[in-house]
Amino acid sequence: MDSFGTFGATVADLNNDGYLDIIGCAYGYGVVMWGSEMGYSPFNKHEFLSLRDCRNVQAYDINGDGWVDVIFGEKAPLSDWRNGRITIYFNNGGNFSESNKLVIPSSTNYGILVMDFDGDGKPDILSSRKEIDSSSIYWNIGPPTFFDTSIKTNLYSVKATRNLSVQIFGNIYDRKNRFGYLSPVINLPERKTLRSVRIYGDLAGQRVKVYARKSDGTSWGRWVEVDSAVFDPDLSLGIAFQYRIDIFTNFAGSSKFKIDSIALTFDNIAYTKDLPRCFYDISQSNGEVKVRGGGGRFYVFDVLGRRVYEGELNLVGKRFGLKRGVYWLFIRGEGCNYSKRFVVK
Fold it and tell me: Measured between alpha carbons, how far is residue 232 from residues 186, 211, 212, 218, 274 in Å?
């Protein structure tokens, strides 16, 4: 891919499809290169055409809706250095528009860094500058305005700073709330075609994708996205099959779902797999978190990637307290994996 004059770039899964997208910016231009199973294409992108001299880009969920937003730090010319700005494009279900953005006047920006500096659960923005005698932290005051130029802290001892070198805090590359199940290999007595896949359980409010692949006895084919009544040439006349389930939860707070079983039909053969242990119940309120499940182990990390709690899953549930802030919950079950971002206020 061409990258003429790029000053800043980062990666994040902006549309919650499980693939990392590339975000970059240059003078007067920003772009998202959408990731896919096939990689990246110059024809599969979103462009931001109203930027000034962009020097840095960050990806962070500013408004806490489960969709990662894009933040550009824009420098102004030396003759007009006071007219720099920070532009936040809010992510609306994987889509961006000029009508859904927030512009923060911020003199000359050579770099920006987004993280929760005061531990209140809301991401703030550090603006690094060169032409003036201070950098600034803009404090996130929450909805509906999120930022106010009068609510900031000037760092007068930080002078003539250029690009911020620290970009990664904890696991910034996987912000989606995602549950994954990868099946064992299903060996058949003779070549068959996969005709249908059905999931039984309580998945209300979840976005579910199911993929399958076949083996001809020598090698595996590609993963094919399927639905409840599927026929795809790449899933025909296989001697072995494997499937995976991805469940995306795009809301904060509690997330509850249950998978009881998966049923596959190969021509006239039915195959059913019971998943009694793929059940998790995560909730949090008033600084206390409860994790309950049918087996496995869970881990809690803070925004700096430090492990702050871990325990075994059981049906009774584990309760533990956390100070306010942003955390990540990772569950490793028997064939099941789950990750979820949550905020303790």
Answer: 18, 12, 10, 20, 25
Task: Tell the burial category of 157 from Cβ atoms under 10 Å away from its Cβ (0-12, 13-18, 19+).
Answer: exposed
Residues recorded for the chain:
345
Interval 133-140 mean pLDDT = 81
Q: pLDDT tens digits for 51-80?
A: 877 878 888 888 877 788 999 988 776 666
Residue 178 pLDDT greater than 80, yes or no: no
Give the list of residues 6+ apart from residue 73 with CB closer than 8 angstroms, or none: 8, 54, 55, 56, 57, 58, 84, 86, 106, 109, 110, 111, 112, 127
Give the residue among 124, 228, 247, 250 at the shortest CA–CA distance from 181: 247
pLDDT of residue 168: 40
Phi, psi of 233 (to 5 degrees): -55, -30
d(CA 89, CA 71): 6
The pLDDT tens digits for 227-271 are 755 567 888 889 999 988 887 764 444 456 667 788 888 888 888
In the 8-state DSSP scheme, what is residue 27?
B
What is the spatial distance between Cα 217 and Cα 208, in angstroms, rounded to a whole number? 29
CA distance 9 to 59: 10
Say how far apart CA 13 and CA 149 lie, in whole Å. 29
Q: Is the dihedral of CA 26, 28, 30, 31 positive or negative?
A: negative
Q: pTM of the prediction?
A: 0.55
* CA-to-CA dists, residue 6 to 13, 81, 131, 205, angstroms: 20, 20, 21, 39
DSSP-derived secondary structure letter, 86 = E
Q: How far is residue 328's CA from residue 121's CA, in Å, rounded to a whole number?
A: 12
Q: Quickly count: other Cβ atoms within 10 Å of residue 216's Cβ.
A: 12
Rg (CA), the chain: 23
